[in-house]
Amino acid sequence: MDVSQFIGVMLAAMFAATFGSMLGLGGGVFLVPLLTLFFDIDPRIAVGASAVCVVTNSVVGSSVHIRSGFTNLRLSMLLQVTTAVGAIIGALIALRVNAGAISLVLGLVLLYSAASMLRQRRLSPPPPNEDDPDPFGLRTSFRDPATKLDVVYQPVRVKPGLAISGGAGVLSGMLGIGGGAIQVPLMNLMMKVPVKAAAGTSSFMVGMTAVATAAVFYSHDEIDPTIVVPAMIGIFTGAKLGSQITRRVQTQRLVLVFVIVIAYLGVSMVLDAFGIGL
């Protein structure tokens, strides 16, 4: 790898980590298509590198989310049960399918995520009723630094959420995206978790999920240090920056920008799977 490509991969990872940390997407949802589309890196190598970087992004970014009170630790550990199992299954599937299939699936996931996030921009979950049952003890609150208001919420539809989290884990293992592209819309749209809480909780989860994916890819010699090293440098900077921005900005106002970026990358990946350049 020459110097220009090293710097390019580092900047791409910084971009991916900044936006990924802000919305709890882990960064992989941006990094994999950036590496495959603009640096002509094999999708399997890109997925393996992304899985390693998602772990780093989660460690750096989620620490800030936890201090801000955005992370629902009880909810994250509950959903992680099915997500981790799905991640191992997905990683094993990814090692046995061709690169075009991975590109196609990732493109479709990106387009789904874009549509879901566009809906999410208009959705503000109502506060829970004090009389509502809370069998899993998930009701909690946080103070939003951007609005100076206390936000109280209680996740609902927990059992269907567990099932869908398993599917998110499979996609995470296949695509190295940490599952955040599914988890954030799932928590916000179906489980009625506020945007910032969904992002903070997902940011914590994606790291644990990506560990399982990275381990499988490493055991099959699909981790390329020449890609991982510059990406890790960019991840360190971008993850902290993104999580700090989340504290100060009303996330809903930024979602439209992310939708445009994700939709562009999604369309590009689908076309690339069929050998068509955008």
> Strand arrangement, largest sheet?
1-2
SSE ordering = HHHHHEEHHHHH
Radius of gyration: 17 Å
CA-CA gap between termini:
25 Å
Unreliable stretches (pLDDT < 50, length at least 5) are: none
Put the structure in a nutshell.
With 278 residues, the chain is mainly alpha-helical. 73% of the residues lie in helices and 4% in strands. It has one domain.
How does the SSE layout of this entry go?
Elements lengths: L2 H21 L4 H11 L4 H26 L4 H22 L4 H22 L19 E5 L4 E5 L4 H18 L4 H11 L4 H25 L5 H24 L2 H23 L5
Antiparallel strand pairs: 1-2
Helix pairs in contact: 1-2, 1-3, 1-8, 1-9, 2-3, 2-10, 3-8, 3-9, 4-6, 4-8, 5-7, 5-10, 6-7, 6-8, 7-8
Structural notes for this entry:
The chain is mainly alpha-helical and 278 residues long. The chain has one domain. It is 73% helix and 4% strand. The protein has helices at 3-23, 28-38, 43-68, 73-94, 99-120, 158-175, 180-190, 195-219, 225-248, 251-273, and strands spanning 140-144, 149-153. The protein has a two-stranded antiparallel ribbon. Helix 1 packs antiparallel against helix 2 (28-38). The radius of gyration is 17 Å and the shape is globular.
Q: What are the key terms here?
A:
mainly alpha, 10 helices, two-stranded antiparallel sheet, 2 strands
